[in-house]
Design a protein that fits this description.
about 30% helix; globular; six-stranded mixed sheet; alpha+beta
Length: about 120
C-alpha cells in the first residue's frame, strides 16, 4: 500500500495547493471522480478541471488525510478531515451545496499506478 498512500498524500498536498495539473498527472485519463458539491461523478481530466475551477470560485476546501486502510480488490480508503471555508476564510453559513466541515471516507480505485475512480462515503 506504500506506493498508493504516497500517491494519495501527494494528491492531497497538490489539491490543497490548488495544483490541478499536478493532481491530474496521477489520475487516469478516463477517471470517474465524485462530485462532492452536486452528487454524481465528473468524468476525465477536463471534467475534474471544470468541477474544481467552479468549486474553488465558490468555496475554499481543505482536505487532510488522517489514515489509510486497504479493502478488497486493491481499494484504498482515506479517512479525511474536510474543512470548507468561504473565499474570505470564514466558516460557511447557508450554503446550498453538499460541502461542509466533517470527516469523510475517500475511496480510491487504481489502474496502472493511477487513480481510476474516486468515491466519497460517510463515516459510520
Amino acid at each position: 500500500m506504500d506506493a498508493e498512500t504516497d500517491l494519495l498524500n501527494r494528491l492531497y498536498r497538490r489539491f490543497n495547493a490548488r495544483d490541478i495539473d499536478g493532481v491530474l498527472a496521477d489520475l487516469a485519463d478516463d477517471v470517474a471522480w465524485a462530485n462532492g458539491m452536486d452528487g454524481g461523478h465528473v468524468q476525465g481530466h477536463e471534467g475534474i478541471r471544470d468541477y474544481w475551477t467552479r468549486q474553488w470560485s465558490m468555496v475554499d476546501p481543505h482536505v487532510e488525510p488522517v489514515g489509510f486502510t486497504r479493502r478488497a480488490d486493491d481499494v484504498v480508503v482515506a479517512e479525511v478531515l474536510q474543512t470548507i471555508r468561504d473565499l474570505e476564510g470564514n466558516p460557511l453559513e447557508g450554503q446550498t451545496h453538499g460541502l461542509k466541515d466533517k470527516t469523510v471516507l475517500h475511496v480510491f480505485r487504481f489502474r496502472n499506478g493511477k487513480v481510476a475512480r474516486f468515491d466519497i462515503e460517510e463515516t459510520a
